[in-house]
């Protein structure tokens, strides 16, 4: 499932065999570092603070065991950002929470991912500059953070910024954006009344609910 979007990309592919693109992977999280020694032979960000990542993993490529997952070329939600401490671009593709913007799905818990494919580019919506396809090898198995029903209980939901859940007692809430970045964490005593997540920014999110006999992730728009 190779992504060739332009003649320029095809011509560039032969010159991108070496570059400082490294990653570690654990429990569905690909932690990526690029350009640590200022080697921009894979992709030259030209000093931009953000590199956008087009991400996919396809069953037809033998990349995973549960189906096809693909970002829209016009909506690349994963990023690498410049980290002055690391002196490199760093970021995480968390497959446990990532909603693929083209196939509009999230990988289910237990998916075995042998590798993912990425393209680095300069824009979320399309690209004027981009890398060739790069494979990031696994294997890795997703944790229970994929969106699931809550162990026989009614599925939780978020409406008007408030979480409605059947969980009772002390629970931990973790809110992620669709790229897997943690937005906030909360410890609450769930009593059956709606829980205000206090999110001011509009967007698409996931909230992980854990504790009190429940482990659940809910997708929602704020």
TrEMBL record:
<keyword id="KW-0732">Signal</keyword>
<feature type="signal peptide">
    <location>
        <begin position="1"/>
        <end position="19"/>
    </location>
</feature>
<dbReference type="InterPro" id="IPR026444">
    <property type="entry name" value="Secre_tail"/>
</dbReference>
<protein>
    <submittedName>
        <fullName>Putative secreted protein (Por secretion system target)</fullName>
    </submittedName>
</protein>
């Amino acid at each position: 499932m190779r992504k060739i979007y332009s003649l320029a990309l095809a011509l560039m592919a032969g010159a991108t065999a070496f570059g400082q693109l490294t990653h570690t992977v654990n429990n569905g999280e690909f932690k990526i570092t690029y350009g640590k020694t200022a080697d921009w032979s894979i992709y030259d960000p030209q000093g931009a603070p953000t590199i956008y990542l087009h991400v996919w993993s396809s069953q037809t490529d033998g990349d995973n065991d549960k189906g096809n997952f693909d970002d829209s070329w016009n909506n690349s939600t994963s990023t690498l950002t410049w980290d002055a401490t690391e002196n490199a671009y760093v970021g995480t593709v968390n497959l446990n929470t990532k909603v693929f913007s083209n196939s509009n799905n999230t990988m289910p818990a237990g998916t075995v991912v042998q590798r993912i494919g990425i393209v680095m580019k300069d824009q979320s919506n399309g690209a004027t500059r981009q890398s060739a396809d790069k494979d990031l090898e696994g294997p890795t198995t997703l944790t229970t953070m994929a969106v699931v029903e809550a162990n026989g209980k009614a599925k939780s939901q978020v409406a008007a910024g408030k979480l409605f859940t059947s969980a009772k007692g002390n629970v931990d809430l973790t809110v992620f954006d669709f790229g897997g970045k943690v937005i906030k964490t909360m410890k609450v005593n769930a009593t059956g009344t709606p829980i205000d997540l206090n999110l001011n920014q509009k967007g698409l999110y996931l909230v992980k609910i854990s504790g009190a006999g429940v482990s659940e992730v809910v997708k929602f728009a704020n």
